[in-house]
Structure formats: C-alpha cells, structure tokens
Design brief:
- With 102 residues, the chain is of the alpha+beta class.
- It has 2 domains: 1-26; 35-101, no CATH class.
- The chain has helices at 2-19, 68-82; strands spanning 36-42, 49-53, 61-63, 87-92, 98-101.
- A 5-stranded mixed beta sheet has the order 3-2-1-4-5, with helices on one face.
- Strand 4 (87-92) and strand 5 (98-101) form a beta hairpin.
- 8% of the residues are buried.
C-alpha cells in the first residue's frame, strides 16, 4: 500500500512539471527573465557618470572624461551581448529626465 501512494505522488509531480511553461534561453520572457536595464546618469559631484544596473554586484561603475557616456554605453552593450540577454540602456540628465534610450 505504501508503494501505491508513492506512485501516485510521483505521477502528480510529473503532471505538475508538464504544466509549467518551458524555460528556454531563446525566449527570456517564458523563463521569467526580462531585459536587463542599465542607467547612465551624472554623478552628484559632477565628476563623471555612473553606470548602474541591478546585475552589478558591487554597485555602479564610474566613468570620467570626454567620452565617458559612450564608454559606459559600449560596456553595457558588451555585457548584455556576452550574457545573451536583451538590454535597455537609459541615459539620464541631472534631474533624472530621460535623454536617450537604446
């Protein structure tokens, strides 16, 4: 009788697995993973720009110099391509108004 109960519980588990949507790398929305969002905004002190993302383990990455924004955008694109995920890149001004989205 104990083995019969085990068969039924295993069957229920398999049925539950079949009802779940299949996860795949080609369809990130099915997998529950949306596009990664990167934001580039000026630093509060005015000495460069911060690249932020929820995926960064240790906080924002600081860029300075005349081509800081283009280097930050290039890094965000590289990171999203190497992780095979779509990315949304937002460039914001001092008052957090969207200047450009890629």
């Amino acid at each position: 009788m104990g083995s019969k109960g085990t068969k039924h519980s295993n069957l229920r588990l398999k049925e539950a697995e079949l009802q779940k949507p299949r996860q795949s790398a080609s369809n990130p929305m099915v997998a529950g993973i949306g596009p990664e969002v990167y934001e580039i905004r000026p630093r509060k002190g005015g000495d460069g720009f911060d690249l932020t993302s929820d995926g960064f383990r240790y906080g924002p990455i600081w860029y300075a110099g005349p081509d800081a924004v283009s280097r930050a955008v290039a890094y965000a694109k590289f990171r999203s391509l190497s992780r095979s995920r779509r990315a949304t890149i937002r460039v914001l001004d001092h008052s957090d108004i969207l200047i450009e989205a890629r």
